[in-house]
Amino acid sequence: MKKASEYRKHAEECRALAKQVPEGPQRDQLLEMARTWENLAKDRDALVQKHPELAQPPSQDEN
């Protein structure tokens, strides 16, 4: 399972791309994707808070 920081990185990439696109549906879609990545990061943080063992790095078998 990915770390929340990875989800936040994807969100930032979407926002950076959105800045390069003129206003319109494509920009809106990129901003929506950024919000979705941020929500995933928040959900991951909440999950790890309830289950700290999930914060451990995955074993080599899971990579």
Features:
63 residues, mainly alpha, 2 helices, elongated
SSE topology:
Blueprint: H1 4-20, H2 25-50
Region (Disordered): 43-63
Biased composition (Basic and acidic residues): 43-53
Question: In a few lines, what is going on in this structure?
Answer:
The protein has 63 residues and is an all-alpha fold.
Number of contiguous helices: 2
**Uncertain segments of ≥5 residues (pLDDT<50)?**
none
CA distance, first residue to last residue: 9 Å
**CA-atom Rg in angstroms:** 15 Å
Mean pLDDT: 91
Beta-strand content? under 5%
* Helix-strand string: HH
Given the helix and strand composition, which structural class is it? mainly alpha
Helix content: 55-70%
Largest sheet: none
Total beta-strand segments: 0
The general outline is elongated
Structurally, the number of domains stands at 1
How would you describe this structure to a colleague?
The relative contact order is 0.17. The chain is elongated and about 45 Å long. With 63 residues, it is mainly alpha-helical. The chain has one domain (4-50). The model has no long low-confidence stretch (mean pLDDT 91). It has helices spanning 4-20, 25-50. Residues 43-53 have a biased composition (Basic and acidic residues).
